[in-house]
Structure formats: structure tokens, C-alpha cells
Amino acid sequence: MISLSLEFPHPVEIEIVSEWFMSLGACAVEVSNQIVETDGPCNTKAEEFSSSSGTKRKTFRVLLPCDVSSEDFLMSLASFSEWNQIKVLEKATVEETDWVERVRESFIPITIGRLYIRCPWHSIPETSTGKDELVHMIIHPGMGFGTGEHPTTRLCLSWLQRTVQGGEKLLDYGSGSGILCIAASRMGCELCHGVEIDIDSIRNAEENQSLNSISNISFFQPLEAPSCCYDIIVSNILFHPLVDLAEKFSQCSRIGTRIALSGILCGQAESLKAIYEDVGFKFEDTMIENEWCLITGKKI
């Protein structure tokens, strides 16, 4: 297998270039930024390609299978007038790799409190019984965010374990892989609704729901979500979407509804609290991991 590192001297559309590389026989494409020092001001048209210290260019690492000639590949690129100035930064031979196995090896089982989160290909460990018994969850990594590795996911999972008493109705807005709904169901929630804008993430979440043999979870896109009053609301997305959702969360909550918001940086917490307090929530705790935080409270 041949690895080529290629650089364009001008801004390009990543998706178009990557698709064209694949059509010419590439089996994988990786994109990164490279800062190139300049003596004068940057004159590129797109702001994303400029910085105070130089020009930020897109570097593509292309993998070619053994039956694709690197010379033919580069000649095909050079035949396009817009691409005939591509610079080959590096050419190297790399060993054949089982990429599926490589990806699998990158995921390891995670324990968060009493939750034991594993992928479908991990073996089931021996578990203790009684109060120390682990609660098992299977998450297949896919398009949906949430495998238990990111600090915000861990913060939300820890909070759910302290909050769910049993019998609650829960809303997870921005449900990603479905990991929070699955955990809430395992903890004893009566009903869990996950709302997610990305249809591929919903498919991933439904796959994970099936892997865990859970029937009390439903996933929806925003316009399809039912109007319900929830006992617990959790949302692990980003600051600006959370700002936009404040009024909606107020409408689908009642006095005493518990709420947890994450996906935000520590410096954004106070601003978000103020916005939600204006629509009837009172915040009690802030939990921090690295630069990420989770703010929790209730409807008053």
C-alpha cells in the first residue's frame, strides 16, 4: 500500500477533493491543516486558510492499494488544470492493515460508577453481585456521539446514576448514540425519549437499543418528537443550541423536573445558567472535567 501526502497551494473543497481521490482508486483519505510561514500578508480568499503567523493549508494523506499505481494517480490529478500544482510532500510504502480491527482495538471497555460500557466485540467480564454489581451496556461506535470516552458523556452518566430513582420519564435532547437513554433505562426510568437531528445517529442509537434489548426508548427527529412533560431532561450538545432550547425545555418540564446541561466549556456555564433561570430553572451544582462542565438543577 502506498501513502501519499499531498498539499494544494490554494483553498479547495475537502469533500469534492476527497471524493475525487476515491474515484481515482484511493482506499482512504485523511485531511489535516499545515501552517506555512509567510513573509507578507496572506492573500487567500477564505478566512479559514489564514492565520496571523502564516497560511493554513489543507494537507491530504491518501492511501492507495497495491493495484493502483501512484504514478497514474498523480498523472490523473495533473490532468486537471486547477489541480496541476499539487505538491507531493511525501511518498511512502505502508504495511497492509486490517482497519476494522484497528478501529476495534482503539475502543476499550469503560467503567463509570456502576456502569460497565463495552462494544459488541468485547467479552463479558465476571461481575460481582449485590450492591457492587455492575450495570452492563453495549454501545456500537457509529455516527452517533457518545461512547463514554468524552468528559461530557462521563459527567452526564455520573449524574444520571445519582438522579434516577425509578419510574421517571426522561428526555435526552441531542441523543447521539443513545448512550444516555440506555443508561437511564438501565437505571430504572419508565420511559426515555431521545431527540436527534441526524438520521444516521438515530439509526446508530436504535442499533444500540436493540443490542441492549431495551423496549422503553424511542428516538425522534425534532419535528417528530411528541409533546410530553418530563421528570428528567438531559442535553449534552453545545452552548448555542442549548441557548436556543431554553424555552422548549421550560415548556416540556414541570415543577421539580431535574435538568442537566453539558457540552459546554467552563467559561460558558454562568451565561447559560442565567438564560435558563429566566425561564424558570434554578441551578444547584456544577461538575467539571478538564475544560468541560455539566450544570444541574431543577424547575421551580
UniProtKB/TrEMBL annotation:
<keyword id="KW-0489">Methyltransferase</keyword>
<keyword id="KW-0689">Ribosomal protein</keyword>
<dbReference type="GO" id="GO:0005840">
    <property type="term" value="C:ribosome"/>
</dbReference>
<dbReference type="Pfam" id="PF06325">
    <property type="entry name" value="PrmA"/>
</dbReference>
<keyword id="KW-0963">Cytoplasm</keyword>
<dbReference type="InterPro" id="IPR004498">
    <property type="entry name" value="Ribosomal_PrmA_MeTrfase"/>
</dbReference>
<dbReference type="InterPro" id="IPR050078">
    <property type="entry name" value="Ribosomal_L11_MeTrfase_PrmA"/>
</dbReference>
<dbReference type="GO" id="GO:0032259">
    <property type="term" value="P:methylation"/>
</dbReference>
<keyword id="KW-0949">S-adenosyl-L-methionine</keyword>
<keyword id="KW-0808">Transferase</keyword>
<protein>
    <recommendedName>
        <fullName>ETFB lysine methyltransferase</fullName>
    </recommendedName>
</protein>
<dbReference type="InterPro" id="IPR029063">
    <property type="entry name" value="SAM-dependent_MTases_sf"/>
</dbReference>
<keyword id="KW-0687">Ribonucleoprotein</keyword>
<comment type="similarity">
    <text>Belongs to the methyltransferase superfamily. ETFBKMT family.</text>
</comment>
<dbReference type="GO" id="GO:0016279">
    <property type="term" value="F:protein-lysine N-methyltransferase activity"/>
</dbReference>
<comment type="similarity">
    <text>Belongs to the methyltransferase superfamily. PrmA family.</text>
</comment>
